[in-house]
Amino acid sequence: YDSDRVGWSIQGKIPAVDLVLRKGDVGVNDAAAEQKYTRREEAEWPIARTRYTRFFLTPDQKLTTLELASDTRRKLSYKALGTVENPQLLQFSTEPFAAEAEITGHIVAHLNVSMSPDPSGPTPTDIDLFVTLRHILPEGKEVHYTGTAGDPVPLTKGWLRVSLRRTNPDHPKHRPWLPHRDYTSTDILPVIPGEVYAVDIEVWPTNVVVEIGSKIVFEVSSGDTQGCGIFRHDPSDRSEQKLRGSNHIHFGPKSLNYVTLPIIPPKSK
Description:
single chain; mainly beta; 15 strands
């Protein structure tokens, strides 16, 4: 107590931000191997020179920085109530990166979603969205990182229950790349079958250096998928009465779906 061997209590003694740059595949739960990652100091968080870049989802399940204007309305569907053992999901992939790119910071996904009941099932009243970013090497192998419990995890994850989609843009902490929710009882909104809802999903901040030839995959699922580790969602809160049916992502001229990634350009010399 009252011991500061590093210098946190001395203003300017240590950098405001000290990043570990996750480049390459060093394996999982191997502290010695992770020493291969280099470090970089920054003056602030988020990094001021961040270029928040939209990667658009397409109906043919691609992820592209090109906003494709289309008058055609389409939707992609997947079953609700997926599990790790029986995942129900859609994946959207970039082309292989033509140049190295660093992704460091906060991420938000914007999706246009709806749900519909099964013909013989109850009428669902909500949608659970589980999103994941995955880093795929040129040979097709996914890079896994070390999770909190020492287990293999993907690049990052995010979640949203659509009845809690309301954000508070007037809150001082609200940002385009970090939507703020108050989560009060009055923030609960209805979710009606067939209605399309535009939602913003907070995704945990992360870091990766994507090398030439590698890809980023954006995954949308209806339940936990690989990488959730021991932190699975409680089945008692995910009943068939509430969620059973099909979930949909809608595409069209007024239904753009995208992931905003924090791209970091090199420091100017």
